[in-house]
Amino acid sequence: MRLLITGLSGTLAPVLARVARAHGHVVLGWDHRSLGFADGRAFDRLRPDAVAHLAMAPEEGSAQLAGLAAARGLPFVMTSTAMVFHHEPDGPHRVGDSRTAQDAYGRSKIASEDAVRAAHTQASVVRIGWQIDPSASGNNMLAQLDRWQAEQGEVAASRAWIPACSFMADTAEGLLGLLAQPGVHHLDSNAQEAWSFAELVLGLQTCFERHAWRVRIHADYSHDQRLACVPGDPVPVPLSARLALRRL
Q1: Of the candidates 76, 93, 75, which has an alpha carbon nearest to the alpha carbon of residue 84?
Q2: Are residues 5 and 52 in contact, defined by beta-carbon separation less than 8 angstroms?
Q3: Got the DSSP string for the chain?
């Protein structure tokens, strides 16, 4: 399969590219900064068999790219986020729940979900949580915790927050599995085990030998952010299989 992936200069897309190549697929890049998202001739020159849209993009651009795929009968998957749900009402959040985001980022993702599904009725929209990877920078939980320690002298972690989260390689496998599955899906490695953020931070500290972290556990933020998976969808590898188990 020739898989066109947007966002290859970002955080998750390069991991998806690596996993796709390991499965024998040919990875194609799309430079939306120079091409935009509506260049049908450039799209056809690449001859993709499917599209994975992971780039940060406005709803109009996402809809344009989805429209190119729809017109050619190609599978299309787009990543969305757990942030389409506000912390009230609490989770676990299910696919059909009302999207209650109040911040600009969450609302923009809601708009993109709707625009893509209108442009490509067979599109797959996959909501994911905070991603974890031992080497990636950008919006990666482990890198962010390192930054907190460096900038604030501690890693503050709430025991009352249950985050939606997965390791990037597991998310990438899930995206490939959902590429040709129309509809809205959730990918969350914490959906069943319900690790608190404090437990997760301690597990990451042990697993990745972050001995310098000064972990401060609190309960100032409370939210069950988990994304309840749809029966029959791929289930990401649970966190306990990736981390040294250290539960509070």
Answers
A1: 93
A2: yes
A3: -EEEEE-TTSSSHHHHHHHHHHTTPEEEEE-HHHH-S--HHHHHHH--SEEEE-S---HHHHHHHHHHHHHTT--EEEEEEGGGS-SSS-SPBPTTS-----SHHHHHHHHHHHHHHHH-TT-EEEEE-EEE-SS--SSBHHHHHHHHHHHHSSEEEETTEE--EEEHHHHHHHHHHTTT--EEEEE-TTTTT---HHHHHHHHHHHTT-TT--EEEE-S--EE--BPPPTTS--PPPGGGTS-----
Q: How confident is the model at residue 233 (pLDDT cuts 50, 70, 90)?
A: confident
The one-letter code for the residue type at 247 is: R
Residue-level pLDDT at 234: 83
- How does residue 246 score in pLDDT terms, banded at 50, 70 and 90? very low
Q: Which helix (H) or strand (E) covers residue 143, if one does?
A: helix 141-152
For 237, counting Cβ atoms within 10 Å of its Cβ (0-12 exposed, 13-18 middle, 19+ buried), the class is middle
Report CA 89 to chain centroid distance, whole Å.
Answer: 21
pLDDT in tens, 156-188: 999 999 999 999 999 999 999 999 999 999 999
pLDDT, position 245: 55
